[in-house]
């Protein structure tokens, strides 16, 4: 491994674990980031326009680094113990993760997400949503399963077209592999949500819509400029539109209408039907 490659994975000590949320994560009380940065490096990722990247990039471009937050699981265990002592665990609704993918390659070695899950099993919060696009999550089905009703696996599936995936997120797992993971999660009895986030060009609304309904107990659809992409700045949005003509929702009016997480809901949610292809229609299942 070169020095540069090693530095791009250099651990950073975690001072805290749970961060209070706001904005598009309305409905959650905290977010949890086991890593700083993300080697999946999606072209549209809003984090590259955020302070997280601006202040902690270590001189690397977005997608070129993933710093393990060393000790994050231990911090989490301490923080959960404090909530437990006050009888407040049930009030916690935690999203993991909003500025990294908790199951990117570094997790294979560092196992920070797995250790955090073990802390959650010890002190279960009211709600935990683990969102990823990586099949590595299958390794931790045992812990997700142990959390039972209070835990949802959210698998990101922005499109059903692997050519689109290869063009915009070439370092992310294939569509086929993600589909297999969602099916495996359902077979393992986990609560599984599909996050079309953001909605990229897809085959046809009938095909993709039918696939989504079949796959998940719950589906969330975001356009590029709303939902979890709404924090993107205008300059970056304009540049992205130029590079990706035809992107669903890219020309849409920006709306601030966060989608609340409602575990019992079995609907397809569209956070902002906008743009030339207008995303997916709202489907009731
Ligand atoms: S996987 Fe998520 S956090 Fe990572 S680059 Fe893609 S959108 Fe950003």
Compact overview of the structure:
The chain has 285 residues and is α/β, with parallel strands linked by helices. It is built from ten helices and eleven strands. The strands form two sheets. An eight-stranded mixed β-sheet has the order 2-3-6-7-8-9-10-11, with helices on one face. Strands 1-5-4 form a three-stranded mixed β-sheet.
Topology record:
Elements lengths: L2 H5 L4 E2 L4 E3 L9 E3 L2 E2 L14 H6 L10 E4 L1 H14 L7 E4 L9 H5 L1 H11 L4 E6 L8 H7 L3 E6 L5 H7 L6 H13 L3 E6 L8 H11 L2 E4 L12 H10 L24 E3 L15
Parallel strand pairs: 1-5, 3-6, 6-7, 7-8, 8-9, 9-10, 10-11
Antiparallel strand pairs: 2-3, 4-5
Helix pairs in contact: 3-5, 5-6
The structure holds iron/sulfur cluster (SF4).
Description:
This protein is of the alpha/beta class and 285 residues long. The chain has a single domain (3-283), classed as TIM Barrel. It has ten helices and eleven strands. Mean pLDDT is 82; it is low at 226-232 and 246-285. Iron/sulfur cluster binds at residues 38, 40-42, 45, 47, 100-101, 133. Iron/sulfur cluster is lined by residues 38, 40-42, 45, 47, 100-101, 133.
Quaternary state, please?
A: single chain
Give the low-confidence spans: 226-232, 246-285
Total number of distinct structural domains: 1
Radius of gyration from CA coordinates = 18 Å
Order of helices and strands: HEEEEHEHEHHEHEHHEHEHE
Query: Residue share in helices?
Result: 25-40%
The strand line-up of the biggest sheet is: 2-3-6-7-8-9-10-11
Distance between the termini: 49 Å
Strand content: 15-25%
Largest β sheet strand count, sense and barrel closure: 8 strands, mixed
Return the structural class: alpha/beta
CATH top level is: Alpha Beta
Ligands bound, unique: iron/sulfur cluster
Second-tier CATH architecture:
Alpha-Beta Barrel
CATH topology: TIM Barrel
Per DSSP E runs of 2 or more residues, the count of β-strands stands at 11
**Please, how many helices?**
10
Overall pLDDT level:
82
Shape: globular
């Amino acid at each position: 491994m070169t020095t540069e490659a090693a530095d791009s994975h250099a651990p950073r000590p975690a001072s805290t674990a749970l961060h209070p949320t706001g904005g598009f994560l309305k409905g959650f009380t905290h977010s949890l980031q086991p890593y700083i940065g993300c080697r999946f490096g999606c072209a549209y990722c809003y984090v590259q326009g955020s302070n997280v990247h601006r202040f902690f990039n270590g001189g690397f471009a977005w997608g070129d680094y993933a710093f393990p937050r060393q000790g994050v699981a231990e911090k989490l265990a301490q923080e959960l113990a404090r909530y437990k002592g006050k009888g407040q665990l049930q009030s916690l609704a935690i999203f993991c993760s909003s500025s990294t993918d908790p199951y990117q390659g570094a997790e294979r070695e560092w196992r920070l997400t797995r250790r955090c899950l073990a802390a959650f099993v010890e002190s279960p919060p009211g709600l935990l949503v683990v969102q990823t696009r990586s099949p590595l999550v299958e390794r931790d089905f045992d812990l997700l399963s142990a959390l039972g009703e209070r835990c949802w696996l959210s698998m990101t599936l922005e499109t059903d077209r692997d050519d689109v995936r290869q063009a915009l997120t070439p370092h992310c797992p294939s569509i086929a592999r993600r589909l297999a993971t969602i099916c495996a999660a359902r077979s393992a009895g986990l609560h599984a949500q599909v996050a079309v986030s953001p909605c990229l060009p897809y085959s046809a609304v009938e095909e993709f819509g039918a696939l989504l309904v079949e796959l998940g107990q719950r589906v969330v659809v975001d356009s590029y400029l709303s939902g979890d992409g709404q924090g993107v700045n205008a300059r970056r949005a304009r540049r992205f539109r130029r590079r990706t003509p035809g992107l669903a929702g890219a020309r849409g009016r920006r709306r601030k209408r966060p989608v609340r997480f409602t575990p019992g809901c079995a609907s397809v949610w569209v956070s902002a039907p906008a743009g030339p292809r207008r995303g997916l229609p709202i489907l009731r299942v």
